Amino acid sequence: MELKVQTLGGKAAGNVSLSDAIFGLEPREDILARVVRWQLAARQQGTHQSKGRSEINRTKSKMYKQKGTGRARHHAASAPQFRGGGKAHGPVARSHAHDLPKKVRALGLKHALSAKLKSDSLIVIDELSLKDAKTKALVASLASLGLSNALVIGGAEVDQGFARAAANIPNIDVLPVQGINVYDILRRGTLVLSKAAVEALEERFK
User: Fold this and answer.
1) How much of the chain, in percent, has pLDDT values that exceed 90?
2) For a surface tag, which of 79, 95, 114, 151 has the fewest beta carbons within 10 Å of its beta carbon?
């Protein structure tokens, strides 16, 4: 399929041919949800930790004699039922990451790209570079394209001036094509690809 290419100033710059195998799929929410869950699980720190009864620094001697008191039988004051005792079945530090087949990850990225194209939220820019690498100039360029919430994907290397100019703009993320991922695509309203990014993606999924 053909898609119009624009400049950062909003002017026409020809057309680009997009592969139906990458951008023309019918989006499946179940696959997208699986990939997003896998990404967020890998990012989760998992550093939550509570102390069990064996880790509490209290005396482990028997609190009082077994018989004759009329009270329940107890041993150490570090037991969970006592104030200052250990936590029963509390959280422990662990990794939340889980495996996801590479084919499902690749399919998820294709479905995310297809979803953006199907919803008319995909723009192709000929070149991501600025003569005047200033935030004010980039804000004006993005306004001419109607962009206020977008993920911008450059080629193998993002122009440093463009990246610096975009750093302080809220809701605008800039990534090289190697960093493209399903979660960032879906969390932003519009996906902006450079021509270099389109070529790299089609080469990647050959």
Assistant:
1) 83
2) 95
Closest residue by Cα to residue 197 from 128, 141, 120: 128
Q: What does the block give as tokens for 153?
A: 């994907």
Give domain limits for the chain: 2-43+98-204, 50-90
How far apart (Å, rounded) are the C-alpha atoms in residues 12 and 58? Answer: 74
Nearest one of 191, 160, 187, 141 to 43, comparing CA atoms: 187
Looking at the domain 2-43+98-204, which fold is it? Answer: Ribosomal Protein L4; Chain: A; (3.40.1370)
CA angle 18, 22, 26 (to 5 degrees): 110
8 Å CB contact between 122 and 190: yes
- Compute CA 117 distance to the chain's CA centroid, rounded to the nearest angstrom: 20
CA distance 18 to 134: 32
Q: What pLDDT was estimated at residue 56?
A: 93
Q: Could you tell me how far CA 192 lies from the centroid of its own chain? A: 17
Interval 72-96: pLDDT, tens: 999 999 999 999 999 999 999 999 9
Distance CA 168, CA 183 (A): 21
b/e sequence 156-166, b meaning 16+ C-beta within 10 Å? eebbebbbbbb
How far is it, in rounded angstroms, from Cα 193 to Cα 23? 12
